[in-house]
């Protein structure tokens, strides 16, 4: 979450977002390889590109970003699209979410977190090739009519609010408000389209001389990471968050991708890849705030809070989302004129266009010395009544932040401990927030999987984190002279 509020992505831009996927190779639905990117597509992508960069932490620069761009443009050439090297724009995003996506006009994206999970250049080429396949197959255009009938934001609101809000207009609109700071701003494509993009990615890997098995191994790493995330966060569903959280579960695609690569050979460029990503930022960027267990700390905003027991957090560029069985909340900010009551009222007023949402009353209080105001409204949704709470805090420099929380009627108190945990942090505590980075090391004679894992900059699940980070499945272990990744504290 960044301290500067950015504008919400327009519906037009959102409707154009696309994610990976493809059907059987050689089928009638594989597009002509010679069709160049049209001027209309280029304009559509150029319009959405700056907004997407804003939403996903901005584009990274430097040697690591240049390397990702080089691999992406090289694999884009394999699509056969006219002028592909010049037409494609490849961006490495400063986001801690495992995500990759594409939009019309040849704009493809991958997050640094997803790159950090990869273990060789062929895997990077496979993921980017998967997204190039979306552009080549015109998946966005093929889904556009359906998207216009069921707007992305409405669908996103339904995904977010689930059984709490149902599919009523008011439910979707409140869900949309919560969605605006999340990382789920992408269309969900059909399984056949996902598999089609996998197929195209494998085709491009073969044509470029890479090991085509890389598509299967990176999907396997994603599945392992999703499972680990679920265990760490105390969730039962290991599929969320997944690759962009809108792709089908990668675990279900691993065997398919590996089977399609059967017999294929090629290079992986493992050591080159690891050398090029050495030092890459991993996990949360302190400039966007960091999550440590159930605690969120933002050194620039100088604030911290603790999520309720049993809830997990996802840190987005413009909001922090807190989710659990008893509801969902987000911490974000809005324009502030110096009056907290008005601030709370304005947030409620912006929740719905179809009906007024008004709190039963706005109460004033103080939380750990911070002036605060809050109110709760009971709302009729498609699945019954829910309680919507806005809890706002006044910080220095005429700035206010607020939680927007949704819970089943009568269960709003589930968030009380979180509301009461908000506090200002000292300059020293802010200075102690140090980012994590990837450190590539060579396995020595006395090193083992366990000893290397003990160097991971985490207090929990060190061995599991190390194994997932290095794609070690089953009984695989490290060997002397091998390059591996560990996560350490940076400077």
UniProtKB/TrEMBL annotation:
Residues 1-20 form the signal peptide. The keyword Aminoacyl-tRNA synthetase does not apply. InterPro entries: Mito/Outer_Membr_Metalloprot (IPR051156), Peptidase_M48 (IPR001915). Residues 64-258 form the Peptidase M48 domain. PROSITE patterns: PROKAR_LIPOPROTEIN (PS51257). The keyword Protease applies. It comes from the Bacteria. Its cofactor is Zn(2+). Keywords: Hydrolase, Metal-binding, Metalloprotease, Protease, Signal, Zinc. Coiled coil: none annotated. GO terms for biological process: proteolysis involved in protein catabolic process. GO terms for molecular function: metal ion binding; metalloendopeptidase activity. One of its GO terms (cellular component) is membrane. This is Peptidase M48 Ste24p.
